[in-house]
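Dear support,

Our group has been running a series of protein-ligand predictions, and this particular one with magnesium ion is the one our PI (initials K.S.) wants archived with full inputs and outputs. We had some confusion internally about which version of the output was final, so please treat the block below as the authoritative record. The input we submitted was:
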Amino acid sequence: MQIVSAEVIVTSPGRNFVTLRITTEDGVVGLGDATLNGRELAVRSYLDSHVVPLLIGSDASRIEDTWQHLYRGAYWRRGPVTMAAVAAVDTALWDIKAKCAGMPLYQLLGGASRTGALAYGHASGRDVPELLDSIRAHREQGYRAIRVQTGIPGFDSVYGVASSSAGGGDRYDYEPARRTDGDRTRPTVETWDTRAYLRHLPSVFESVRSEFGPELPLLHDGHHRMTPIQAARLGKALEPYDLFWLEDATPAEDQEALRLIRQHTTTPLAIGEVFNSVYDYTTLLRERLIDYVRSAVTHTGGVTAMKKLLDLAAVYGVRSGMHGPTDISPVGMAAALHLDLAVHNFGIQEYMRHSERTLEVFRTSYRFEDGLLHPSDTPGLGVDLDIEAARRFPYQQAYLPISRLHDGTVHDW
Ligand code: GCO
Ligand code: MG
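Confirmed final output from the archive:
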């Protein structure tokens, strides 16, 4: 089953997405997500210049061999650009294989281990009343687990807080990548102060627990901003509120920092959305320094690599919590959902809804019902790409914000 074409489609229906579309000689089409938020064109270039020429004429059924060829054959290993490109190829080949088998992908991964994947949504508010409204709105939408992000008194914009986040209307997502246009050609700058954040956050969780009671699973994302000792203190301060997890407490590349946090707190820890390989996790798993793996299929080398990573995590009792913001395309989300359904050590799935415009381009079949996601029984991944619609939304440059302290020092965003 030879590959006859591989096309990289960059489209911006509300935000940018990079999709690889592989076609076989019998006309079977597979899709893979290669979106790297704010750095999309680097992946397009890597695919177009260095990967697509290797794919044409090769056998679409040899998924493992293709993965090893692209990974080892490049000599230069890992890195977000490379691994997003490898992920797109791998995911597209799984889509093709499952379509040829006439089965939803999760069947090829071992079949369903559950009826649906517990999803968490993003509630946020500039202040506590707005946050409580947003949590109520998410619960009305069916969410059974909620990520809580909040503004800090005295700060204009804070990570994870939607600008109009009262929760009503049809926007439930927070979209940090901002398009450049006209005079604004550079990323927006946000001011940050970790001490102000640490003083404020426990009282927010106190309000949320007293309003919603002890049962609702609550999550929080520290977005890489604390030092290890600050993170240890926060984890401890949040223990009375029984978090499902504290995510990315410290900058992710410093994996040894997790040791110090772990010594001081029993708040469960999640990390890994910016990781791109199983090798980022070996110390964390072996020493049991984390509770949840945050990687996405899109950024970790595809379904093949993600399945191996989750199998290794299972050995250490660590569960999945795959990254699922809007910068994971519907193709990447569908791939995650097939794994969520199949693996035994599933934990939770992040799920931000894509905009109506995005869903005009990507025709999905996955369902969100009563707080659980299901990838559907459509053969393959269950997502189609409408090429005509994609062409109507050309790429627009967009950057994630950067953070600076009051004195101008660059901080982790
Ligand atoms: C999350 C993430 C996102 C990232 C975004 C960057 O937990 O969903 O932290 O909000 O900021 O995916 O591209
Ligand atoms: Mg995060």
